[in-house]
Amino acid sequence: MKINLAKSAGFCFGVRKAIAQALETAKTQKSVFMLGDIVHNEEVVKQIRDAGIKKINRLSTGKGKTLLIRAHGLSKYTLRRAKNLGYRVIDATCPMVKEIHQIARQLENQGYRIIIIGDKKHDEVSGIIGQLKSKAIVIDSLQDIPLTKIKRIKKAGIVVQSTQNLDHVLVILELLRKYIPKISFHNTICNPTKTKQNEVKTMPLKNTIMIIIGSKTSANTKRIYEISKSLNPHSYWVNSAKEIKSGWLKNVKNVGITAGASTPETSIKEIIARIKAICSA
Predict the structure, then answer these.
(1) What is the mean pLDDT of residues 14-40?
(2) Got the DSSP string for 116-173?
(3) Beta strand spans in the chain (E)
(4) What integer pLDDT is reported at residue 41 of this predicted model?
(5) Does the pLDDT at position 26 exceed 90?
(6) 281 pLDDT exceeds 90?
(7) Which of 3, 4, 241, 276 could bond 270 through an S-S bridge, CB–CB 3.0 to 4.6 Å?
(8) Which string of b and e fits 75-94 if b means at least 16 CB within 10 Å?
(9) Who contacts 264 (Cβ-Cβ below 8 Å, separation ≥6)?
(10) How far apart are CA 174 and CA 19, in angstroms?
């Protein structure tokens, strides 16, 4: 049996940078805190916790403390409050997410009503919303479009959560164009996401089964899995080697493997080793 690993599998630049920044901060600072998890992956979260960085749900007195902003970014209000409370701030926001912040602010300053195509409860989307003076409209599906509000908008600036599926976004955009006279659309899906999604549009057709590796809390892994599953019903989403079932590999000629942007290389290697062990048994 042949194992085909996607070239883009695993950490993207933004995640790699955020983790490196976090570990370096943990070495040089004593009291380091983070609002939420640095990325959506349990193994990485444990690594960060073991390094001494503490996860908190709300800010308190920040004297002598460092606040690490995670890869998904943070609202302007929370950042300002952290500084006012005395925290030293280290910004590990993904550069591509920062770019979305900048575009959204510019569009708002130009008089556009901001629409974000993305997952309503995702941390990155919350960070984008938190850059704006007025309330943004967030759309995560065709069924979720608030037409009453949309019909009143004359000019809209649209940005996209960096890990969205472009095909899904374009369907929503097409509908919005029917109701909004003027639209400034910015495809802010990041390049690593585009690369991963492009790869997974061909791999499921060339492999008997597909294994997609990543946390169930990872938005970008979810998109990869959805694309793969739509092309090959024998697509499986796992987060660890113990989730691999021997029945999946019975009479299989080749296995395609890819992994989300927050999936560490150790997880990928362990799963490949597990597949080899099952096949050689």
Answers:
(1) 95
(2) EES-TT-HHHHHHHTT-SSPPEEE-SGGG--HHHHTT-SEEEEEE-TT--HHHHHHHH
(3) 2-5, 32-35, 54-56, 66-69, 88-91, 113-117, 137-139, 155-160, 182-185, 209-213, 235-238, 254-259
(4) 96
(5) yes
(6) no
(7) 241
(8) beebbeebeeeebbebebbb
(9) 10, 11, 41, 43, 44, 47
(10) 37
User: Would you say 94 and 40 are in contact if contact means Cβ atoms under 8 Å apart?
Assistant: no
Whether the per-residue pLDDT at 128 is higher than 80: the answer is yes
The pLDDT score that the predictor gives to residue 259 is: 98
Token pair 């990869």 is at which residue? 224
pTM exceeds 0.70 for this model: yes
Report the pLDDT value the prediction gives residue 247, as an integer from 0 to 100: 95
The C-alpha atoms of residue 29 and residue 107 are separated, in whole angstroms, by 37
Rounded to an integer, what distance in angstroms lies between the CA atom of residue 222 and that of residue 237? 8
The two most distant CA atoms of the chain are separated, in Å, by 64
| Domains and their CATH numbers in the chain | 2-10+192-280 (3.40.1010.20), 13-93 (3.40.50.11270), 96-189 (3.40.1010.20)
Given a contact cutoff of 8 angstroms between Cβ atoms, the answer to whether 183 and 158 are in contact is: yes
Residue 280 has pLDDT above 90, yes or no: no
The residue with tokens 């694309």 is 227
Q: What single letter denotes the amino acid at residue 253?
A: K
Rg of the chain taking only CA atoms, in angstroms: 21
- Residue pair 15/266 in contact (Cβ under 8 Å)? The answer is no
Q: With 80 as the cut, is the pLDDT of residue 196 above it?
A: yes
Give the 3-state secondary structure of residue 232: coil
